[in-house]
Amino acid sequence: QVQLVESGGGLVQPGGSLRLSCAASGSIFSIYDMRWYRQAPGKQRELVATITSIGSTNYVDSVKGRFTISRDNAKKTVALQMNSLKPEDTAVYYCNADVDSRRMGPVGYWGQGTQVTVSS
Predict the structure, then answer these.
(1) Could you tell me which of 65, 119, 90, 86 has the C-alpha nearest to residue 15?
(2) Backbone phi, then psi, for 70, in 5-degree steps?
(3) How many CB atoms lie within 10 A of CB 89?
(4) What is the pLDDT of residue 105?
(5) Cβ distance 59 to 81 under 8 Å?
(6) How do 114-118 and 10-12 pair as beta strands?
(7) What is the pLDDT of residue 102?
(8) Integer Cα distance of 10 and 25 in angstroms
């Protein structure tokens, strides 16, 4: 069984910064792409950032230049550094990863989500 556990959410003022972390644990052979999604109230879940196993990254336009995704393959973690936060960044943020736990190909796993609130 594979688990993804996020941490680092909270309340921050506009213009502030937060760093989200996600740790994968369990029976893991390989981790492929890792991603951060977010879901604001009344909206669909949105892909925010992706990082491949070799470190290639991609971002949704609304966070480019403000957010940075990174990973530590040895520690099986992924992080999202969020700077210059705006009220519209308020959402529950979810970690997602494609994990091969049985040497049968990758399966997608989700974390439980962490709340980020940007408000003065």
Answers:
(1) 86
(2) -145, 165
(3) 22
(4) 87
(5) no
(6) parallel
(7) 83
(8) 23
Residues in the chain: 120
CA dist., res. 68 & res. 1, Å (int) = 29
Mean pLDDT by 10 residues, the chain (120 residues): 95 98 95 98 97 97 98 97 98 97 90 97
- Residue 87: phi and psi, rounded to 5, are -55, -30
CA distance 73 to 61: 26
Distance (Å, rounded) from C-alpha 37 to C-alpha 27? 23
Nearest alpha-carbon partner for 90 in 59, 64, 114: 114
11 close to 117: Cβ distance less than 8 angstroms: yes
